[in-house]
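Hi support team,

I submitted a single chain yesterday and got back a structure, but I'm not sure I'm reading the token output correctly. Could someone confirm the output below corresponds to the sequence I sent? I've pasted both exactly as they appear in my results page.

Thanks,
R.
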Amino acid sequence: MNSKTAEMLNRTFQFAVNTLKFLNALPSTTVNKVIINQLAKSSTSVGANYEESQAAESKDDFIHKIGIVSKESRESKFWLRVLNELLKDENHKKQLKVLLEESEQLCKIFTSIKLTSQENKKKK
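Hi R., thanks for writing in. Yes, this is the structure output for that exact sequence:
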């Protein structure tokens, strides 16, 4: 495994853990419960699907799995943006900003990986 892959495996794992810790600290309101459930699923799916992509059976399988990672990253970013509009607590807003920035970076990275993989496949 190359160092970039190892770094991304760690980043996606940390994104999931940090998001879950953040969600666990939120008040349990009716609205928050919906968002917490959705964001918990999408943020953990980013890492789980990236991990799975490392055992892809073919280039097409890898591209498919990276596509899922990209979609789950985008979904996570969406729910973080919703929370950003709803939360009033400044401490939560600071933590949320870090998660939102990471989700934006992950979206860019995985979209780039997918597009590059698709282009490389066409060249062969």
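A quick pointer for reading it: The CA atoms of residues 23 and 36 lie 6 Å apart. Let us know if anything else looks off.

Best,
Support desk
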